[in-house]
Amino acid sequence: MPPLDFRAATEADIPALVELVTSAYRGDVSRQGWTTEADLLDGQRIDPEVLRQDILRPHSRVLIAERDGRMLACAHIAVDGNAGYFGMFSVHPALQGGGIGKAVLAEAERIVRDEWRCPAMRMTVIDLRDELIAWYERRGYRRTGIKKPFPYGDERYGIPKRPDLRFEVLEKPLLP
I need a labelling partner for 118 at 20 to 30 A (CA). Which of 42, 43, 82, 101 fits? Predict the structure, then answer.
């Protein structure tokens, strides 16, 4: 299989990114993959204006993975305090489980470590997502014990179907 090509997103990519991220997490199409949040949340997964700000701000990059010019995956990385931040990680549902996610995560870690010189990568994951947290743990991430509230009432992040959603912070050292 041909290698993935990585590039930084531009504002012109916003509609395709919204479609990709939504397909990986919301609605029936997301059930083709294992990252679905369809049982936890309705509504949008990413707000186009928030995405635009992430693309434009300094020390922030929306990373796109393509093959033969087709967008297959994406992630948002940024400098957040003394660490890198990893989020909005999405792989097309029909392609999940084939190694694309591992490659995107490795490239994101490389950028944060080698280009931005951050000593660690952090992320937040809905704490009910045990299978997803286990996937990250197999890649060196550890639970920090820090929990953050879900932004109930802010529909930019979705419409919760449960009253018990929280985020858990995971972290991985990138530099010795």
Answer: 101
